[in-house]
C-alpha cells in the first residue's frame, strides 16, 4: 500500500492548506529552502540561519528571505532534490541561463566565474544567483522535472522591492520557451531587489493557490527596449493593480 502523508502545501500570511500526496517517487518533505541575504548570509525564512523543510515551516511560510528589512536576496537554494532548477535575473547581468553557451549547458556546466568582478554565477539544480559580487536577484524562474514533476505542480511567488508580494507563477518544464514571461516572477529593468520567495507543491492538476489580501494580480513586471513598463500575468500584459 502506498504511503500517504499530509504536508503543509500552502502557508501564506496565516492561511494554511493541507494536501494528501503520494510519496512513492519523492518526498517533498525532504526539500529544504534557503537563500543568501544581504547582511544575514545563508538563511531560511527570516534570520534563523537554518534551512527548513516544508514540514518545519509552520506559520512562517514555505520559502526563504526577509521582508520589511530592505535586504537584497543574492542567491536561492533548494536542497533535497535535483528536479528543481533555478534561473535568476541578476543586477547588471540579466538572466543567468543566457550567460552559459549551448556547449556549456550540454556539458553540464552550471556555474562560471566572471573575470575581474570577483563574482560566480550559478544556474543549476537547486541553486541560482551569484556569490561574491553583492548583486541583487531581481526575478526568478523555476523549472520542475523528473519524479517531482510526475507527481506535483509547483507554484511560487516573490516579495519584490516597492511591490510587495506578487502573484503566483507556475514552474515550467524544460521544453517550454525560455523567453516567455509566463513563468517568471519578479521584475526586470527596474533595479528592484527580490527580498523573499515562497513555494508550494500541490498534487498534479490541482488549482493554483489563491491570492490573499494585498497580493498583486500579476507575477512579473518588466521594462521594454523603449522604456515602457508592463505587468504580466501568465505571460499576458495586464493592468498593474
Explain the overall architecture:
The protein contains three helices and 21 strands. 6% of the residues lie in helices and 46% in strands. It is globular. It has one domain (4-67, 78-86, 141-238). The chain has helices spanning 54-57, 102-106, 146-151; strands at 4-12, 15-22, 32-37, 41-43, 52-53, 63-65, 73-79, 84-90, 94-95, 111-114, 119-125, 127-131, 137-144, 152-160, 164-165, 169-170, 185-188, 194-203, 220-223, 229-233, 236-238. Strand 20 and strand 21 form a beta hairpin. Mean pLDDT is 78; it is low at 1-26. It has 241 residues and is mainly beta.
Distance between the termini: 48 Å
Uncertain stretches of 5 or more adjacent residues? 1-26
Average residue pLDDT: 78
Can you write the helix and strand succession as a string?
EEEEEHEEEEHEEEEHEEEEEEEE
Number of helices: 3
The total strand number stands at 21
**Proportion of residues in helical segments:** under 10%
Return the structural class: mainly beta
The major pleated sheet works out as: 14 strands, mixed
Shape: globular
